[in-house]
Amino acid sequence: MTEPIYGGQAVVEALKNENVRHVFGLIGSATMEVFDGLYEANSIQFIGVHDERTGTHMADGYARASGGPGVIIAGQNGPGATNLLTGLAQASAAYSPVVAIAGALSSGHVYRDAFQEVDQHAALSPVTKSSVTVPSVGRIPELFQAGFRTALTPRRGPVLLNLPRDVQSAKAVFPEPPAPETYRVQFAPAAPAEAVAQAAQMLLDAERPVIVAGGGIKNGGGAAQAIALAEMLDAPIAMSPGHGDAIPFGHPLNAGQMGPRGNPVASRLVNEADVILALGTRLGFNSTFYSYDNINRDAAIIQVEIEPTEIGRHFPVSMGIWADAATVADQLAEAVRSAAAVREASQWTAQFQAERRAFLARRDAEAVMDEAPIQPSGLFRAFRRVLPRDAAIVLDAGTMTLQATDALEYWEPPCLFTPLDFGLVGFSFACGLGVKAAQPDRPVVSFAGDGGFGMQVSELSTAVDAGLNTVSIVMNNGCWGAEKAYQRDFFGERYIGADVSSPPFDELARLYGAVGYRVERLSEVEDAIAAALDADAPAVVDIKVDPDALYSFRRDSFAHRM
Question: Can you state the angle between helices 52-66 and 85-93, rounded to 10 degrees?
Answer without folding.
Answer: 20
